[in-house]
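Researcher: Structure for this, please.
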Amino acid sequence: MQIKPLITLTLLFCCGLSAFSQTRLNGRVISITDKQPIPNVSISLQGKDIGTVTNDEGRFTLVAPLTPADSLAIDYLGYRSQKISLKNISLSTNLVIQLDTLVQQLKEVAVKPLTLRQLLDSITHHNQMAFLNPMKLNGYYREFVFTNNKCTEYSDALTTYFRGTNKLSDDGQLKIIASRCAEAKEDNKDKDKSAAKEFYLESKVAPNKLFEYAMLYGMIDKYFPVEDLKNFSYSIESVENSTDLVVTVSPKPGTDKLHRVTFHLADDFTMRSYRLEIDPKRMQNLPERSLLGIHVKLLKRYAEVNYERSGNKIYPKFFKFDVMVHIGGKFLGTAFDQTYNPRSEYVTTDISTNDLKPFARGEVYKKGNLCNNGIAINDTLLKEHNFITPSRKDSLAISSMR
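Model: Predicted structure, token format:
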């Protein structure tokens, strides 16, 4: 008679443990600053190989053998990690977790400095996760070439850019939908021919390569490789009346490095824009390269990329690349004294939401003459797109070519 209650109590206790072991914990992770959901946040049981991640709405469900002694570990790049004890948590209600950004930690670099590599890795990897994935961006691309400040070549194109993953090693694809070119005419010195000479040269840049710079990792790999980081230092400043930060990476005195980059970061560590340029302090001491009597000196290298949000993700909205060199000297009796200035610009006009699949290999543009790809661009097509409006100076330069 006394054994039955003991058995009953034991069964109830075991059933209670079994039920508790299958506890379903629902929750949501939001930013403490703007209360927006944060996707892809890692939620795990500390000390156990059990976890999940938040969806696009910041929500998660964790089904695990939970006990009051357990703790949740919440981790996401660019935010402060959290540890939450389940001792005082009601498992039957939706848990709301608010994450704070690492901005305050970055502002305290004087106390606990980050190495430059840690800083660049954090910026790169966080933004890699923040980019739309996959993305298909429709946009307008154009290219100028100025020779001695006179526009000598002009081309533009309607394009679609596809990128399917957020892996650093995966390149995107560029497809030319429609294009056109124009080049300044030269007087034909051959008296046997009366027509003016007109021809099209290859594009001076690979537009699809420029997206690697817009996606950030290509620019850092080229201008700030790991082996050169010892030659650079950085500073961090707050943006007035904002929680944003400006991070500037500059060459150290006494080094031969030329470039500096300025990142404008939101408080969640994602990019608003960046600007690459030759450090003005090094402008007067730029090296000159010579070969067979021809001297080439770099006068300018400039890149600007602006980003825009789409929900909780970002994409490159606009980018510009501008290079200028001076070519001088004499070769085979011919004297040279000219500046050469190719410029490229791109603006995203809209984001495709359907058919997010890679292009066929034959449709992908690599590098060459833009006008050998796609159909001929026309005013009707242009009216269907919001494209970069040429400045007055650009308009006059283009008009002079016709």
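Researcher: Any notable elements?
Model: The helical segments are 3-21, 103-107, 116-130, 207-214, 217-223, 379-383, 392-399. DSSP finds seven helices and 19 strands in the chain.
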